Amino acid sequence: MALPTLSAVDYILLILLLLSSAVIGAVFGFVKSKKSSAKEFLLADGGMGVFPTALSIMVSFLSAITLLGTPSEVYMYGTMYLYQAISWIIASTLTALIFMPKFRELNCTSAYEYLEKRFDRSVRMCASFAFSFFMLIYMAIVLYAPALALSQSKLFIQYQIRKGQIATLLATGLNIWISVVSIGVICTFYSSVGGMKAVIWTDVLQAVVILVGLLAAIIQGFISIGGVRAAMSIASKGGRIEFNSVSLDPRVRHTVWSLLIGGSFNALSTYGFNQTQVQRYMCVRTTRGAKQALFINAFGATIIIWLSGIIGLILYAYYAECDPFTAKYVTDIDQIFPYFVMEVLSGIKGLPGIFLACVFSGSLSTISSGLNSLAAVIIEDVYKGLMGKTLTDERQGLASKIFSIVLGAVVMLLTYVVSYLGSILNAALSLFGVLSGPVMGAFFLGFFFPQANSRGGFIGFIASLLLQLWIFLGAQITKNQMKSERLPLSVANCPTLVNITTTLTTSTRSNPLIDFYSVSYMWYTPIAVGTVV
Q1: Which residues cross the membrane (predicted)?
Q2: Phi, psi angles (nearest 5°) of residue 127
Q3: E strands, 44-102, where?
Q4: 257-295 burial by CB neighbour count: b if 16+ within 10 A, else e?
Q5: What is the pLDDT of residue 336?
Q6: Which residues, listed in sequence order, are joined to residue 105 by a DSSP beta bridge?
Q7: In sequence order, which ranges of 97-120 are alpha helices (DSSP H)?
Q8: Which residues are registered as beta bridge partners of 164?
C-alpha cells in the first residue's frame, strides 16, 4: 500500500514561500533601504499604503494557532467559537474610532509611552515587561504549533492486511526541529534585515497563501465527502452546528455572552493596546488611512475565522464514524487537520504543499511582527525609558536589528517550554488574557478615569496580574477535575485492529475552588480589566 507522503511539488511550493519571504527581506534591507534609521526599521517611515497594512494587521495574530486550532475547536466543540468573528469586528471598530487616533496623536513608537505620561514610569515598565514576556511565549507557541502538528513522529494510521497488521507512518515528512529552525531562521532574517517594510510586505504574501490554502482544503474536502449538503447534514446530526448557547454560567466554555463580551475584550486588547498592532497604525500615512486599514482587516479576519470553522465541520463530517484522536491515530487534537490533508488530499500533487505553505505563513507573519515590536519595546521602554540612555536615529536602527536577531534565537529556544501547555488554542488565549488583560486595564484606567493616579494605576495592575495568574495556574492544575464540554466522537467504523484503551483518572479530593478555576478562559480579559479599574 502506497504511503501518503509529500511530493517534490509540495516541497518546491514550501521552499518557494520561504525563499520569497527571505528575498522580500533582502530587497527592503539592501536595495530599497535609504538609511539605517529607527523610523524606517520600526515604522516603515510612516509611508505604508492602506491595503498592505490592513493585511498585515489581519495576519499578525491570525497565526498557525488559528489555522490549526480553530478547525480542531469546531471538530471537538462545535461552531459556537465562530462568534469570535463578530467580536473581532466590534474590537476593530472601537479601535478605529477611539483608541487608534489617540496613539497617532501622541506619535509614539512604543504604545506604553502613554502610560508613563498618564501615570508614571513604573506602570509603563510593568506593561512593557508583561507584553514582552507574553509575546516571547506566544511566538514560541506559534512556532511550535505547526512543527508539532506536521512532525513525522506524531501521526500514525493503521491498516489491516489479511493475516496481520502493520503500522505505517502517515505524515508530512517534516521533522519537528527542521520546521522550528526553518521558520525561525527565515523570520529572524527578513525581520532583522528588512525591518517593518519587509514584515508588512511578507505579511501580504502570506495572507494570500493562507487564503488560497484554506480555500483549496475546503473545496477538496467537500468533494471528498460528497458535497456541501452532505457535509453539513453529517455535522448537524453530530451536534457540531450550534449558535444558541445562551447560558449565563461563566463556567460554560463558550456562550453567546462569553464570546461577544469576553471575545470583544480579548480582541480589543490586541487591536487597541498591543504594541504589534499599534506600530502598524503608525506606519500608515494618515489617520483616515489607518481607520480604513482596520475596517478592511475586520472583514478579512472574519473570512479567515469562518473558513477555518468550515474546515472543522468538514473534518467532523469525514471522521464522524472513525475519530483519529479517540482511535489514537493522532496524539494531539491539533494534528487532525494535517492528518486529514495527508490522508485524503495527498493524492493531488501540490495540495499538501499549499497546506504546508498556508500553516507556515501563519507562523511567519506572527513571529516576524512580534520580533519587530519586541525590538521597539526593548529600545524605547527599557533602554531609553528605564535606563535613560539616548541613541541617534541610525544607531537605534542598528540596535533594533541586533535585538531582532537575539530575540529570534530566544524564541526558538522557548519552543520546548510551550509543549507542556496542552491544547494550543486554549493555552494561547488563556495566557493572552492573563498577561494582556492587566495591560488593557491600565490603558482603560488612563483613558476613561481621569481621577485615577499613578499609585492607583500601579496597584491596580499588580492586583489584576496576581489574580489572573492565580486563576490561570489553578485552572491548569485542576483541569482534570473539570467537567469536559467535548461533544461525542465515534470510532464505530474504525478498523477492527484498533485497540483503544481509556484511562479514567478519579480525583480522590475535589479542590474547593474548582468553580472559581472553572471560569471560561474567554472571561479572563474582562476580569483583568475590571480588577484594574
Answers
A1: 12-31, 43-69, 81-101, 122-146, 166-192, 204-223, 255-273, 294-319, 398-418, 424-449, 456-477
A2: -65, -40
A3: none
A4: bbbbbbbbbbbbbbbbbbbbbbbbbbbbeeeebbbbbbe
A5: 87
A6: none
A7: 100-106, 113-118
A8: 161
Considering the chain, what percentage of its residues have pLDDT values greater than 90?
39
> Which of these, 252, 260, 213, 219, lies nearest to 82 by C-alpha position?
260
Local structure of 165: helix, strand or coil: strand
Q: Are 18 and 360 in contact (CB under 8 A)?
A: yes
How much is the pLDDT for 1?
43
pLDDT classification of 497: cutoffs 50, 70, 90: very low
Q: If you search the block for the grid coordinates 496542552, which residue do you land on?
A: 422
Task: Tell me if 13 sits within 8 A of 350, measured CB to CB.
Answer: yes
Q: Is the pLDDT of residue 51 over 60?
A: yes
d(CA 376, CA 396): 9
Supply 7's cell numbers.
511530493
Among 221, 173, 426, 243, smallest CA distance to 319 is for 221
Average pLDDT value over all residues in the chain: 83
- How big is the CA angle at 284 (ends 281 and 288), to the nearest 5 degrees? 85
**Could you tell me the three cell numbers for 287?**
489617520
Check residue 92 and give its pLDDT.
95
Closest to 214 in 3D by CA, of 81, 351, 335: 351
What is the residue type of 365? S
CA atoms within 13 A of residue 73's CA, in its CB half-sphere = 26
pLDDT value of residue 342:
82
The SS3 of residue 517 is helix
Cα–Cα distance for residue pair 192/198, rounded to 1 Å: 9
> Which grid coordinates are listed for 401?
536589528
What pLDDT score was predicted for residue 175? 67
CB distance 355 to 91 below 8 Å: no
CA pair distance 225, 220, nearest whole angstrom: 9
Cell numbers at 215, concatenated = 480555500
Q: Are 191 and 408 in contact (CB under 8 A)?
A: yes
Grid cell at residue 239 = 451536534
Residues 6+ apart with CB under 8 A from 428: 65, 69, 138, 141, 142
Cβ(84)–Cβ(259) under 8 Å?
Answer: yes
- Cell 489584576 identifies what position? 464
| DSSP letter, residue 107 | T
3-state helix, strand, coil in the chain (%, to 5): 70, 5, 25
What is the residue whose three cell numbers read 478579512? Answer: 300
For residue 4, name the pLDDT band (cuts at 50, 70, 90). low
Sign of CA dihedral 220, 151, 55, 18: negative
pLDDT in tens, 261-283: 999 999 999 999 999 999 999 99
Phi-psi sector, 102: left (phi>0), alpha (psi -120 to 50), beta: alpha
- Tell me which fold the domain 15-30+49-163+187-421 belongs to: Sodium/glucose cotransporter (1.20.1730)
484: cell is: 469536559
Domain boundaries, the chain: 15-30+49-163+187-421
pTM of the model: 0.87
